[in-house]
Amino acid sequence: MWVGVRGAIAYGHLERIQTDGSAASTEVASDPSSAAPTLARLASDAEAAHGLTSDPVWKLAERTPWIGPQLAAFGTVAAASDELLRGSLLPLATAAQSTSLDSLKPVDGRIDTSGLATLVAPSEAAAASARDAAAAVESIDPTPLIGVVGRAVGHAEELFARSSNALDALSRTTKLLPAMLGKDGPRDYLLLVQNNAEWRSLGGITGTAILLRTDAGAISLVDTRSATSLSQGISAPLVQLPEDIQAIYQTRPARYFHNLTQIPDFTVDGPLARDMYKAQTGTDVAGVIVVDPVVLSYLLHAVGPVTVADGQQLSADNAVPLLLNQVYERYSAPTAQDAFFASATGAVFQALLQGRGSTTGMLTALARATEEHRVLIWSANPEEQSVVAGTTLAGELPATNERTARFGVYLNDGTGSKMSYYVKPEVSLNWDQCQQEGGTSPRQLTLTLALSNTAPLDAQTSLPPYVTGNGVYGVAPGSATIVSNLYLPQGYELVSASASNGTAHEEATLDGRQVLTFGMNLDPQTSASVTVVVAATTSASEAEAIVTPTADASLNPTVVASCNNASVAGLQ
Length: 572
Description:
Layout: H1 2-30, H2 36-52, H3 56-61, H4 67-95, H5 120-138, H6 147-180, E1 187-195, E2 205-215, E3 218-226, H7 227-231, H8 243-249, H9 266-281, E4 287-291, H10 293-303, E5 306-307, E6 313-314, H11 319-330, H12 334-353, H13 359-371, E7 376-379, H14 382-388, E8 404-413, E9 423-431, E10 444-453, H15 459-462, H16 465-468, E11 480-487, E12 493-499, E13 505-510, E14 513-522, E15 527-535, E16 542-547, E17 558-562
Parallel strand pairs: 1-4, 8-16
Antiparallel strand pairs: 1-2, 2-3, 4-7, 5-6, 8-11, 9-10, 10-15, 11-14, 12-15, 13-14, 16-17
Helix pairs in contact: 1-2, 1-4, 1-6, 2-4, 4-5, 4-6, 5-6, 10-11, 10-12, 10-13, 11-12
């Protein structure tokens, strides 16, 4: 009875934390100085819940059958909440009282990062404390949990992981941003804008390359070139690619600037882009950054519409269809298309440098884009690259661990066209059983990739020749050829792989991962699918698939399956 009363009271405290905690952690990551009042209230709830679930009577009750695991899980969540709020978020918000991230708003093209110096130590401590709290909740065995406790632990795990990721990102930003903005002297960066209308593994072909210069917080756009111009005159690979990469992608990524992100590992693509750019221009850069038009649309939510060279208004609503589809109806010449693309990108960044919009809006836009694998960074400075390593920004190959099996689903256009804009991918994951049953075969994990060509039946005549590819590479206009590279979880054994249309696949290995390559041709209004089954060699209860980001912002590039519960890309 005593335990039940204390539990009910503690549950009330944790319910308030669950309701307001997500918004509070987001507020801390975007502007720590403004979050202190909310966090102080939530910290009191966390302290009370921890106290109610940690006395000797409660600990004794945790040892009882059936109810014991429920109480232990509840107590762990309460202790982790106390750690997250009183040991992480509140100290950071208190330390940031004299600093507002709104000071990062550009003024006359310059960003003052001096205030970030005061946040380096407290944000690092907060991130470490948040990691510990998230790890404690993640370690809870969900198997014996039932009802409200099971649901509460599931919600808590999601909240703690989100909070930990946000604080980790803030910590890394405070360390990295001042140096990247030229605190110690001028730097040049290569900004690549991918075109998701023609898929490459990490998003799309490199449409535009912009040279950015930073110096003491000032940012300027120095030069803009198209990938076409940067690929001219290249008759042989500019960089020697490893044999395992060539076995899958041949030498194309080192011969054509458009194909830089065909290799789904930005720790390879970043140095490759720097070397190719230097070979073509003579300019050496300190790092490489990748974005896409969907990122630009998110930023336009923050800064408002901009005007491009031809007088067209570019807004959050029309940026993606205009840049990735309608531009080819307006301009038939590739040089004019490239110019429009470059003008639009430059206009968005000029608006940012002019300080338009709110800092919170800009950070929210970049956070969403980063979560969706649409923003990637590589630094030539090993120390700075170590800060990026292991994060979504690094764009590394998916890594499998004891808890989570990770696939990579990377899509490449084989049509020589802009037909990827019309192809919809759907990826699903499913475990055949939650726990390994004694004496039976290993648990199996199934990945299904379905591709649908949504182009109209009369695409051959209704779409511009530049969009359809006009049959130049042997694909009928209106059809789309998609080359899918499926990276299997490390250490998992392939059971079967098949395509609905009977297409055969090729197998290779890259960086310890088995890679299956399927080439599929899709006529307008048709679909095809690939199904891959692997045998689990770990006790993982989670699975993820990292999917090429597309022009459709509603499709989630990270698909998750927890045991028997599957998730499909596009359902958020």
